[in-house]
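Sorry to interrupt, but I need a hand with the structure work. Could you write out one complete protein record for me, on any chain you like? Just paste the record in under my message, thanks.

. . .
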Amino acid sequence: MLKLLVVVILAQQSPQQSPMSLEDCIRAALRKNVDVGLAQKDVESARARKLGTRAGYLPRLDMTLQDGYYFTGSQEVVYGFGGTPVRLTQPASDDDTHYFGLRLSQNIFDGGKWWNQVERADKSINVTRLALKATRESIAHDTIATFYELLKAQKEAEVLRQSLETSLDQLRLAEERYRLGAASRVDVAVAKVNMGEDRIAIQHQQRVIGNAMVNLNRVMGRSPLTALVIQEPGDTQDLAGSPSYREVPETHFLLRMYAAAQERANLDVTIAKGDRWPQVSGSISYSRQDPEFYKVYSRFDQLYRLAFLLNISFPIFDGFLTSSNIDRAEVASERVKLEKFKARQDLEMGLSKALTDFLSLRAISRIEADNIVAAEQRLELAKESYEVGQGTALELREAQLALNRAKLTAVQTRYELRIAFSVYHQARGDLLKTYLPKENP
């Protein structure tokens, strides 16, 4: 009966589906994560804005069509002849008017703003592309971290299940010794309490597994309650090799993104200064107007008005608007410069910390292997002492808990080491290249 209860607790039924590898999870996240989709839309928006910059140097052609009907009611008009006013009644009247016009306008000079705006649009596209890459790297890291958090929770559950099986064996031993008169009822009660604590720990761990699964599904852009089965990845990444790069490469995409943002901000200053120059534009207009509809839309070589205009606008005073725009653009440029400096500092600090964490965790993992061996030996000695009546149930439980702690710590270190490895490569800017080497995300 008791054995059946333990089997029910240990059974973990999963939907029949193919397990997902770490690479599968990363690819799913890059396809479906909302943040990646938003970053991609930013790139498309930047491309659309570049198309709009063509209006600065391409001619513009407008066509205007007007058809109107005017009605004037009767009214009294007073005329004065020789000092004697004459009142006349002007009858009501109506009139039709029809108008057709074409206007071709061209920007000739605007202080260099139009070609700077075209260049600025190119910089914006570059910034959004690099921001997209940064988002993809960030989502890939989040996927790796949540993937290993789920694996860690599952492995911790396995350790707790092993502890439950050990508690079951200890309960059988206590009951057997009690029947033989070699143990008291207290030993049996203690063994039952220990088994109950292990069962509770397993239930708590199932909640941890459920939360980790929700987090991984969310990063992958899936419904939080979607059934998910993952598999332990092989050590394709050389965790035994020692990462040693402590300097952030100049080719890092974040540094290149801020460099492009700095160039864009400098162009904003130049564009703002363009308002201090005269604005020169030209236009040619052709128009026709007549009460008769057919006269407006026929015989286009007659009854028309052709105008050639050259407009030159000199900025004299605009209420300090131009000066304000220049100052704001210069402040924004200085802000981007500081943001670039801070980004470099953050990358260097993150890289150094990730490398330190990785090396420390790797050293700890080697020590923990010895601790597990020692804890297993301690548990075996405690069992032998208890079986021959020299040890106590408390000593046996302490030895079991010590082994559990050693195994749980080893599991935590194992997966924290892999997360630290991903953090290191994220700081280096080559995370996707490391985890998806055969692809070009």
